[in-house]
Amino acid sequence: MNRRSLAIVLAAGEGSRMRSAKAKVLHEVAGLPLVAHAVSAARHAQSDSVCVVVGRDAEPVRRLVTRLDPSIRCYVQVERLGTAHAVLSARDAIADGWDDILVLFGDTPLVSSTTLARARQALADGASVCVVGFRTPRPTGYGRLIMSGDELLAIREEKDASDTERAIQLCNAGVMAIAGPQALELLDAVDAQNAKGEFYLTDVVAIAKARGLSVKVTESPFEDVLGVNTRAELATVEAIWQDRKRRELMLAGVTLVAPQTVFLSHDTLIEPDVVVEPNVVFGPGARVASGAVIHAFSHIEGTAIEAGASIGPFARLRPGTSVGQDAKVGNFVETKSVEIGRGAKVSHLTYLGDASIGADTNIGAGTITCNYDGFNKYRTVVGSGAFIGSNASLVAPVRIGNGAYVASGSVVTEDVPDDALALGRARQVTKEGRGRLINERNAARKASKT
Question: Active site residue: 27, 85, 295, 348, which one?
Answer without folding.
Answer: 348
